[in-house]
Amino acid sequence: MEVGRFPATRLRRLRQSPALRDLVRETVLTPNDLIQPIFVEEGIDEPLPVASMPGVDRIPERRLEREIEQLAKDGVKSVMLFGVSHHKDPAGSDAWRPDGLVARVVRHAKRAAPELVVIPDLCFCEYTDHGHCGVLEGGTVLNDATLENLGRQAVTAVEAGADMVAPSGMMDGQVTAIRRALDVAGHPDAPIMAYSSKFASAFYGPFRAAAGCELKGDRKTYQSDPMNGREALRESLLDAEEGADILMVKPGLPYLDVLARLRDRTLLPIAAYQVSGEYAMIRFAAAAGAIDEAQVVRETLGAFKRAGADLILSYFTRTVISEGI
Ligand code: PBG
What we know:
The protein is of the alpha/beta class. Helix content is about 35%, strand content about 15%. The structure holds ligand PBG.
């Protein structure tokens, strides 16, 4: 018998043409997977460029409806809304007032594009005068007092028309507290996407300028230590037990290990958040001519899906969808 030529296993056989490669591609990205985060500022007339995030503006509240209409026309199917507040106080109470910024931006967005999935970020750091994600006492963020406020904020957001709420403050018990508050208020169908494995990351730097929530100190007493993988899994699995409908790993690329490990342990949908610092690195490297932006963006978004994400939050959403995936 003729002995086969070495090597017998030739993985290159299926890489010989674009069509062949398409046939065996394991991961595909579609506009259905992507969520566009948006910063909306009250009391301004013109969009304000965010210097550390080239291509991202703070949108004036009074232009939000036009912006949302345009995003929907471009094919964006879901947005995450962040308010930039001019009404900050120690507790962040504007975030739960029925006519506060959270409620208003949700109403504007739903009015402009009723079919769009509108998700407000549920947190207080954009609404507190100290910039922390909850009620501060003696330098500490109070967990349980913040839970009560989160419940109020969730009810306000859903009553304004939010399709889903996304608590990002990393308070213990926040998913249970929000679920109970929503159920008691008669909103058992409102889903919760929990920022569940959220790390105390330096990659949020540009976001804090974008959302106007710079703070003294850090968030290390409530967000997870970047060095801890198992602890981050516990956080996510606990949020699942508390009734979260979607879990999230954040930031994205530096934490693909956590995403992949979580994928093996839960049947819930998982979201990955490609955060502001990841966006900035790609934009600035591309502007310097070091990388091809379009290709790198698609590679990173594909990596999130490959690692196990069903949904992706990315500041590149609109560009990727309007340019064609
Ligand atoms: C609010 C919040 C942050 C981000 C999303 N929600 C900032 C933080 O936790 O400091 C970061 C998003 C990004 O960097 O793109 N708690």
